[in-house]
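hi! just following up on the protien thing from before. the input was this:
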Amino acid sequence: MSIVTLTMNPAVDIATRTLGIVPTDKMRCSTPRFDPGGGGINVARTAVALGEPAIAIFPAGGHTGQFLTEMARATVPVQAVPVAEPTRESFSVTDTGSDQQYRFVFPGARLTPAEQHRCLSAVERAARDARYLVASGSLPPGVPETYFQQVADLAGALGVPLILDTSGASLRALRRGVYLLKPSVRELADCVGHPLPDRADQVAAARELIAAGVAQIVVVSLGAAGALTVTATGDEWFAPITVPVRSGIGAGDAMVGGLTVGLARGLDLGDAVRLGIAAATATLTTPGTGMGLPSRIRELYHDLTGSTTVLG
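and the predicted 3d structure came back as:
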């Protein structure tokens, strides 16, 4: 398997639309859209859409876990690790009057130590021959903030590069072993403990993590300001692509998916990031947690590089 992904806090994503969000009154909503949600699941969906073999590993419990597994399996190979508590739901509502999106995120299923270990064991079996291991998203209740460090240590023992996209305490708990870290600028600022108002501050913060041995490469997503790649010896800023936004959900995951596909296919780091930007931009134009169309990703990547050869 080329790419193995781990999602420790997956969700059934529900998206709908209504005209005006106000207190007390009933708000009549459009027919809801259901998508498999969670960082690693979305990464795998993007990879498979681009023709790269990938498998998504995640804990799943209850009726929602079964529904999530069925939805995810419709687009990607999956390995669902059975857990006792039901998988969470996440809910987003777009106000059609203002085009503002409101996102409501519930706590995840509390995982026991045995369930956490079974997730690691599933990763160990699947990732032995992988090109890349991707862990993405938050940690659910019951899982220690050092869990992704355990994943990094496992990846190191297997000799598989780890690409990690997480935030908060689990990001701050990292000490070693990540090949590529993909924080947002807000997450990076939280990690180093101070604001990062300009490019120089952002580069310095990323290089602080690299010098500490946390990661070899840091790719900082800057939202509407593009992306920034930092290594021990250099840095490069990548301009964004401006498109009308239907939903921002899953765009960061799509960026990781496109970037990982690019690396797996031998692109240099810059072009891999450009493929990630193309995948993220295509996802911004889809409703709910829909992934960008492969044809649109190829078109956007061609606009950035003049090439689509690596994408077939």
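The chain has ten helices and 13 strands.
The chain has a mean pLDDT of 93.
cheers
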